[in-house]
Design a protein that fits this description.
heterodimer; A: about 120 residues; 6-stranded mixed beta sheet; about 0% helix; globular; B: about 120 residues; 7-stranded mixed beta sheet; 4-stranded antiparallel beta sheet; 11 strands
Chain lengths: ~120, ~120
């Protein structure tokens, strides 16, 4: 079974609107962390946001927030007030276990912001 | 931005030749990683290092070896390159701090990537 699943096809959103990018995960470890990265067309990987399995509140970083639903094993990224510069590939990743530093990535979602 | 550089940034090589990619960091982070990125696969871990001379295999380690003789450098070697190793290679670093709270490991920071083409 895939550890991280990102199944949405290419996503489109109108500038200034909000968009949700889906991510589901699979783990039996009670301690884990979930990450979102952005990869623009220039190719670099940019860290956006982190959610720990024991965090009581959903993570937020500026226009990014993480809709963490532990029982459903989902960690959806919400981008508010989309900007043209948000057009990129977005990857969800998971770290399992406290002593493990390795990340497992999903296959990514392409987001296109329309003017 | 984390101080991570990769060299070379682009390389074209022939099947059967050895290739070494270098990752250099100025952050003094303990953990270093090599990933490859291919369409439809996301990023997959090749090898990682948890300290000088301490390395371990990742998900797709066949055909690759690594070495870390200094904290700041992590080398990825393709002993005999094959066309299936054509990919974009990313190096990443992270610092891990084991705390009493469940939030312990920090995010990974990525280098700019190396585009490798094996003809």
């Amino acid at each position: 079974a895939q550890k991280i699943t990102q199944t949405q096809p290419g996503m489109f959103v109108q500038e200034k609107e909000a968009v949700t990018l889906d991510c589901t995960y699979d783990t039996s470890d009670p301690s884990y962390g979930l990450f979102w990265y952005k990869q623009p067309s220039s190719g670099e990987m940019i860290f956006l946001i982190y959610q720990g399995s024991y965090d009581q509140q959903n993570a937020t970083e500026g226009r990014y927030s993480l809709n963490f639903q532990k029982a459903r094993k989902s960690a959806n990224l919400v981008i508010s007030a989309s900007q043209l510069g948000d057009s990129a590939m977005y990857f969800c990743a998971m770290r399992e276990g406290r002593a493990n530093s390795k990340l497992t990535f999903g296959k990514g979602i392409t987001l296109s912001v329309r003017p | 931005d984390a101080g991570i550089t990769q060299s070379p940034r682009h390389k074209v090589t022939e099947t059967g030749t050895p290739v070494t990619l270098r990752c250099h960091q100025t952050e003094n982070h303990r953990y270093m990683y090599w990933y490859r990125q291919d369409p439809g696969h996301g990023l997959r871990l090749i090898h990682y290092s948890y300290g000088v001379k301490d390395t371990d295999k990742g998900e797709v380690s066949d055909g690759y070896s690594v070495s870390r003789s200094k904290t700041e450098d992590f080398l990825l070697t393709l002993e005999s390159a094959t066309s299936s190793q054509t990919s974009v290679y990313f190096c990443a670093i992270s610092e891990s701090v084991v705390l009493d709270t469940p939030r312990d490991l920090l995010e990974q920071y990525f280098g700019p990537g190396t585009r490798l083409t094996v003809t």
